[in-house]
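Re: that backbone. Tokens:
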């Protein structure tokens, strides 16, 4: 077995009064493809910089094999000292042969950047692609990628995946993109409360593993609390009865209390909720034969769609395809060149855009949420600003901090806090997942799943789309825009069954070889009674199961349930697992039947 490329031992680092890392230890081998997981603020990027050698820890040892090279793709790389894209990408070469310089040209062409493009004129997406190209041409021994998929479209993400699958060195990846991590990693580092825990399996196993660890810790805390309770009772009775002190036992009690006080509990979870406000009309948006073009570029060509109350619609497409334009057309903010758009009645629209236009860097957190008062109306109820920002994992001391001092993830949480405070029955989210940690991302997905208003969602996060949307609008270029039932995976499956009609920009379903139909076996032109019955009744069954799941989750949220009644806790957990599995099965069955109905019609 080859020795590790890099090893960190007894590493500690402190920023302010609290330690960021305590006695952290880990190694990186040449075949490791590591997912580095942890909450926002846990220190993932800092740990990356320690691995890279950019930051020195307060204590501990960093050992790297002689001749080993490490390349770090930062979230916000500095290109200011380079004139062109070619200059910047070339600076990433470990070697400088003619062949290596040739690889720079190939990489720039693959990623869609002009070699002479000046760095000062690059957009955010172009800067990200240039940084990825620079990292890939390095062919380094350890490649560190900090949120590499941020601001990339799905096509570029999938291209990057294919490149990294054939990467010959070690990988360490920070990403909120679950599909990306599932496809690439074979090892997981969990940065949790100052420790680095290692799982020798990929990210797809992380959730089950981390839950087992947290459940074990909860059990141990419950046992410790019970022991402290017992020893405290003894100390009161013993001292009262005998007026003497068993100092050895008292010291044990004090040690137990110190141990409990020293335990670092799991960081809280952001409390997100939303309110759909008053009920909108059944028909929310109806677009008919809408066309839009900018000069020679066609954005929409005879596009029609009908969006009903409660629909959750995902919008995907390459950067620059016109997704934001489509949102503006569908919400009446922009008039199409041709066609009509009709909006439903009683609409209360909230728009969360990717530029964070609802928040200003010069305002404080308090000013962003408040109209001058120390309270804010949250879904019809008055709540103190401090209490509300704590729901979104802000410390009270941050209330009067300027927005400019917040991290990207904190700015997104603040934007969510502002957006979700107001009742809305049409919620429009343009790239809401950028810079969110996975816990907040999961909670946002749960909240949006429970939201009974209408949702329009632009996202490049394939897993987020799969978990959430009921249909997907794909902007496929040259004005070709189509709606597909289901999430991103469903779109991919249906897209494969279509072929291009040369010269038209249109598509048709791919012909597949069919078995001859017997004369006494007529071709089915409608759903069977069994399928029709299921299609009509499944939504009610899904709704009933969802309500039962909510009740069980409410029961599990009782803070003392485990210590008070462990058997009830375990039974409720098992029932929740069974119902969740049943819900997924029925949702999948409904989706298949809905696709079957669409194909027949």
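Recovered sequence:
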């Amino acid at each position: 077995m080859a020795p590790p490329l890099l090893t960190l031992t007894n590493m500690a680092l402190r920023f302010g009064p609290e330690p960021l890392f305590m006695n952290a230890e880990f190694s990186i081998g040449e075949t490791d493809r590591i997912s580095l997981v942890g909450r926002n603020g846990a220190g993932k990027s800092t740990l990356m910089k320690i691995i890279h050698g950019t930051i020195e820890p307060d204590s501990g040892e960093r050992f790297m094999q002689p001749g080993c090279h490490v390349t770090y793709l930062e979230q916000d790389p500095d290109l200011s000292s380079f004139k062109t894209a070619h200059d910047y990408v070339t600076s990433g070469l470990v070697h400088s042969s003619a062949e290596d310089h040739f690889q720079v040209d190939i990489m720039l062409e693959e990623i869609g950047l002009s070699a002479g493009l000046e760095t000062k004129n690059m957009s955010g997406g172009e800067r990200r692609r240039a940084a990825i190209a620079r990292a890939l041409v390095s062919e380094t021994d350890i490649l560190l990628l900090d949120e590499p998929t941020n601001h990339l479209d799905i096509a570029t993400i999938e291209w990057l995946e294919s490149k990294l699958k054939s990467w010959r060195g070690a990988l360490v990846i920070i990403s909120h993109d679950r599909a990306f991590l599932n496809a690439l990693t074979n090892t997981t580092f969990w940065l949790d409360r100052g420790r680095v825990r290692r799982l020798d399996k990929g990210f797809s196993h992380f959730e089950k593993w981390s839950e087992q660890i947290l459940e074990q810790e909860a059990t141990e805390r419950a046992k410790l609390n019970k022991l402290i309770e017992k020893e405290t009772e003894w100390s009161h009775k013993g001292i009262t009865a005998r007026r003497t002190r068993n100092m050895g036992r008292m010291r044990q009690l004090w040690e137990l209390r110190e141990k409990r006080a020293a335990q670092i509990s799991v960081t809280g979870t952001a409390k997100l909720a939303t309110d759909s406000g008053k009920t909108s009309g059944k028909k929310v948006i109806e677009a008919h034969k809408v066309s839009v073009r900018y000069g020679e570029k066609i954005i929409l060509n005879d596009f029609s769609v009908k969006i009903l109350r409660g629909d959750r619609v995902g919008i995907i497409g390459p950067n620059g395809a016109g997704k934001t334009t489509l949102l503006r057309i569908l919400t009446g903010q922009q008039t199409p060149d041709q066609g009509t758009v009709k909006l439903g009645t009683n609409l209360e629209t909230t728009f969360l855009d990717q530029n964070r236009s609802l928040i200003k860097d010069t305002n404080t957190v308090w000013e962003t949420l408040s109209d001058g008062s120390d309270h804010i109306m949250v879904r019809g109820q008055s709540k103190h600003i401090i209490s509300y920002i704590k729901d979104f994992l802000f410390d009270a001391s941050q209330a009067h901090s300027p927005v400019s001092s917040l991290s990207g993830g904190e700015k997104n949480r603040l934007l969510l806090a502002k957006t979700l405070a107001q009742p809305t029955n049409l919620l429009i989210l343009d790239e809401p997942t950028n810079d969110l940690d996975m816990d907040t991302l999961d909670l946002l997905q749960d909240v949006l799943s429970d939201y009974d208003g209408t949702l329009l969602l632009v996202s490049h996060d394939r897993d987020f789309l799969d978990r959430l949307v009921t249909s997907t609008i794909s902007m496929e270029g040259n004005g070709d825009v189509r709606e597909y039932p289901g999430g991103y995976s469903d779109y991919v499956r249906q897209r494969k069954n279509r072929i291009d009609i040369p010269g038209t920009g249109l598509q048709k379903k791919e012909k597949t070889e069919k078995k001859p139909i017997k004369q006494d076996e007529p071709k089915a032109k409608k759903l069977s009674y069994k399928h029709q019955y299921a299609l009509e009744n499944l939504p009610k069954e899904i709704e009933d199961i969802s309500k039962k799941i909510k009740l069980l989750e409410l029961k599990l949220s009782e803070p003392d349930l485990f210590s008070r009644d462990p058997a009830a806790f375990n039974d409720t957990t098992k029932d929740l697992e069974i119902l969740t599995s049943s819900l997924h099965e029925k949702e999948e069955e409904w989706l298949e039947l809905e696709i079957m109905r669409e194909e027949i019609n």
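Residues 283-509 form a domain with the Rossmann fold fold (CATH 3.40.50.300). The two ends are 60 Å apart (CA to CA).
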